[in-house]
Structures are given as C-alpha cells and as structure tokens.
UniProtKB/TrEMBL annotation:
<feature type="signal peptide">
    <location>
        <begin position="1"/>
        <end position="20"/>
    </location>
</feature>
<keyword id="KW-0732">Signal</keyword>
<protein>
    <recommendedName>
        <fullName>Lipoprotein</fullName>
    </recommendedName>
</protein>
Amino acid sequence: MQRLFSLLLPLALASGCALAQAPKAIEDVEPEVTQQVAAAVAKMAIDPAAEGAALLRPCASPPPLELLRRTVDGEERTYLYRTQCGKPLLVSATYGKNGAIKRLQLKTE
C-alpha cells in the first residue's frame, strides 16, 4: 500500500501542477476605475525612476487592461489586472478610503 502511495503521489502532484491555468478575466463593472489605473500605468511608463517602468518599455502605447479580480478589505479596494507588453504582466492597484490609488504594483505574470 505504501509503495502504491509513493508511486501515485508524484504523479498526482505533477498532474495538479500541469492543470494550473492563468486566471480568466471577469466583468468590469467599474470602467472608470480601470481608466484611472490605465492612466497611472501610462504615467509609470514615462517615469524612468518608477518601479516597474522597465517592464513597460517594450510597449509603444499604454496596453489595454483586463480585470482579473476585485477584492474589498475594510475601506480598501484592490484590483488585479492583466496586460500584455512583450510578455504578460500583472497590475495591482489598491484604492484607499479617500478614493485615490494608494499603491500601484507591476510584475510579470
């Protein structure tokens, strides 16, 4: 029994890893937020000192964003977007209670 388990465990783990897929886009019911995030990403792209600006250099113009997730934690709202700029990128934007972007992060997917 133990031998069978030790043979099946790596197979199960490998098949689980192979099934992992990129998250799918969800309906964007707040397009004005997406426009604000897109504008902030465009500003980031032209600021050489901005963290993540190097990831945006391959794009001639600001790439479109697709919403993957929206979460609420107290008075903060966090939006996760995917964009393509040479390679898939993830954009995370957190809004504070004042309705302004509090944190904007960009990383490869």
